[in-house]
Amino acid sequence: MNSDSLALIFVAGYLFCLPIIGWLVKSKNNQVREYYLAGGSVGFLGLFFTLYATTYSGNTMLGFAGRAYRDGPVSLFAVLGMAAVIPVFMLFARELNELAKKKKFITIADFLRFRYHNAPLVYTVNLLLIITLASYVLTNLKAAGLLLEVISDGQIPMVYGIFGLATVMAFYESMGGMRAVIWTDMLQGIMLLVGGLLVFFIVLFNFGDAGTINDRVRLYTTGWEALDNYQLTKGISLIFMFGIAIAIYPHALQRIFAAKDWSTLQKSFKWMCVMPLVTTLPIMLTAMAAVLILGDIQYLEGSESDRVIPILLQFLSQEFVFLKFILALFMAAALAAIMSTVDSALLSLGSMFTQDIVRPIYPKISDSRLANVGRLMTWILMFIMAALAVSLSNTIWSLIVLKLEIMLQVAPSIILGVMLKELKWQAVLGGVVVGVVSTLCLKFSPQISLNLLGIHAGIWGLLINLSSIFFVQLFLSRKTK
Predict the structure, then answer these.
(1) What is the pLDDT of residue 148?
(2) Could you tell me what percent of the chain has a pLDDT over 70?
(3) Is residue 433 assigned to a domain?
(4) Residues 366 and 440 in one domain
């Protein structure tokens, strides 16, 4: 039996389990908060795995690997960026969790309405979050379709793969809501962790020991010896961008709302601190080693490099037959990682449409009826995203960066909104607008984008954003006095 057949068996078994899980955990409590937040009572094990599976997605297995393959050791700053997410969470998660319990928040917009009492600010932030979430879903659906096409050796075209997976996710999510997502995330998280570590150990086995990998990585054309001031600055910029932006993913914040209490959150965060070392780092080291293992046999360019790990395993399995099993497991794990992100993002996207658009239009709608609207919205949004994902052409990494740069401009409205009680809505709204405009101008202006000193456009946008908030807040405070 070849690796493609094994992978298809693993994937088929995995996909068969998901609808069953969705059906089994279906709650009789037909309330919006139960559907989107599992009643706000998620314990440690479920919270940890859903945070892990949501944070480390197909972007890690494919996008991060592609970047490491193209750029070498300088890309390892992404590992520190993933680790930086937890300290940022610690700044505001406790107070936000306690506030969400007290005020029954479901979406980020619920917090923004409570905190600022200003509709234009809420609509602006929500629009940006919807755009970035849609981008997140699109990249991961595209990656899932491509992966299924590779697994089936072309027998399942990408288009059919995307719509087939969308159907499975829409089914179990509409059945069990957040509870179904958490239970499937536990399965997906275990597969992701085991798959990533196994691939790394296989590469170690091929080289003999970790020291040999280190010696060969040092020969990389963009190795540590070539790390100039520009690359160093860009790496530090990447750490800040990852740490701040990922901490305010809408689906990550909804995990804070859903957590049973601060003690549960804190325990989950402690375990999440070590996950970059056992997930992101092994995958990126493996991708860098692929350049040296494959040598002149095959060089991957552009979006093709996002498939470097499967291609590496296929190459090694020609020499070591038992690697066919590992390749099959990795393919299934990568698909599981992607699906864990898509279902979480879609649930958050659905909650925004349901809670922030439908409820204001129909304020007298019952909670149970609104939950049913949410289930219908899951199917509608899933298939809209699937249709759009078919025509996506960018590399996963480029879309990750653009999404995070926009998310950075939303961060002050949430993080500073929790920490600073005197912060005015005018200052926050002005900061968001000038931050987004500045980021897009810096990123897409050919005269400027090449001369940013290695700092991402989103970081410059955030600095302009914060400066605007400071001066408007100062002006309003003096005017009030």
Answers:
(1) 78
(2) 84
(3) yes
(4) no
Domain of 314, CATH number, reads 1.20.1730.10
Give the residue numbers spanning the domain of 215: 3-407
pLDDT (average), residues 283-307:
72
Give the model's pLDDT for residue 321: 65
Instruction: State whether 345 and 463 are in the same domain.
Output: no
Q: Which two tokens stand for residue 245?
A: 């932006």
Sorted by sequence, the CB contacts under 8 Å of residue 290 that are 6+ apart come out as 69, 308, 309, 311, 312
The two three-digit tokens of residue 375, written as one number: 């289930």
